[in-house]
Amino acid sequence: xxxxxxxLDTIAAISTPPGEGAIAIVRLSxxxxxxxxxxxxKGSKALTKVLSHTIHYGHIKDPSTKAIVDEVMVxxxxxxxxFTCEDVVEINCHGGIVVANQVLQxxxxxxxxxxxxxxxxxxxxxxxxxxxxxxxAVMDLIRAKTNQAMDMALxxxxxxxxxxxxxxxxxILEILAQVEVSxxxxxxxxxxxxxxxxxxxxxxxxxxxxxxxxxxxxxGKILREGLKTAIIGRPNVGKSSLLNTLLQEEKAIVTExxxxxxxxIEEMINIRGIPLKLIDTAGIRETKDLVEQMGVKRSHKxxxxxxxILLVLNANEALTKEDLELIKITQKExxxxxxxxxxxxxxxxxxxxxxxxxxxxxxxxxxLKNEGLDALEEKISELFFGGAISINKDTTYLSNSRHISLIxxxxxxxxxxxxxxxxxxxxxxxxxxxxxxxxNLGEIIGEIVQDELITQLFSQFCLxx
Length: 465
Prior knowledge:
This protein starts with 10 loop residues before the first strand and ends in a 7-residue tail after the last helix. By secondary structure, it is α/β, with parallel strands linked by helices. The strands form two sheets. The protein has a seven-stranded mixed sheet. β9 and β10 form a beta hairpin. The protein has three domains: 120 residues, Probable tRNA modification gtpase trme, domain 1 (Gyrase A, domain 2, 2-Layer Sandwich); 125 residues, Four Helix Bundle (Hemerythrin (Met), subunit A), CATH 1.20.120; 159 residues, Rossmann fold, CATH 3.40.50.300.
């Protein structure tokens, strides 16, 4: 996509979260940002005359009534050295819903347009300040739930992925240029010899780079989106107690009455750097209670959609028919079997469970006594990251589903090109596959992208970003 300089409306929005706080920031961006802000700002100098990247004390006043709305500090940043590459004004007012909204309303009445979700970042992209993968990294950084996810988003925001993609696309362009030579000058012996002997090797080198990228995708996606983890088991085995203990708060109601949990409860938690979206489900059993039946149905749905299963068994009771059924239906899933209530007399045979699931899949815990949970955390880290998690600053990670899909499509096109080269397919057909690979990679950074996709991506951003 050809980048363009914006000459549209000046936009405004509150860029800080709603609610009480020390300060709130109201942001303006556009050709009339200084002019619109100056109508409401009263300080020692007019904002239209101050130097760029300076901050000024004053008051926001209603131009129509001259009433003071708030005491503020105003930052002035002139294009092109701003996030959007446009003139930007940021008004730092007192925190609170009423004050910030009054300041925003004055700006809107003064000629600004209310920004759409993600419109500031969208303008940064369209004006060439960042590419599409960096724009997506902005939202990943905001949504990061762990330090590792933050580090990964920062790397993408700094252009790690963009730089690698551009280098690979440049290599493909060079190959395509060589292909053009062989097409335009079919009788040129040196060109044909190069095509047959070196072209395949160059394409395979690019394939290896894409393979290396895809190897990071599983871990990258987990850090970005979190592991959807379903806590399942029969009623009253300790599922809700486990959720509360891991969260360190009383989120789920816990009683000795079986079937207390009637609905699915979801909460995000950080386990040794891994974000887990914990899903506490209703106990799975046969029941005539209509409401409980609905809960059990939702539990089965959560089980099907989960990335990871924590199957809780009651060690104080012998294995039941329901336990065996749950072990069976989760056998193909990534799971850990928790033998809970080990502080009580054990009536479950460990050897019997081990024969069904394997000894390595079992962890003995007492949620009530807070015992065995360190071993659980260690096992989760080992299952998905081979132990301790560390983000290598020199490694480029794939984490975004859109990026992963496009890399897979690019690799598929490369494999077709390799197959064509090996079978001596006409070089112009190989050229089609290489061009398709180049285009797929271009979609990642926004060099080749549809307007509908841009609109859809930025609509997911928060207002004011």
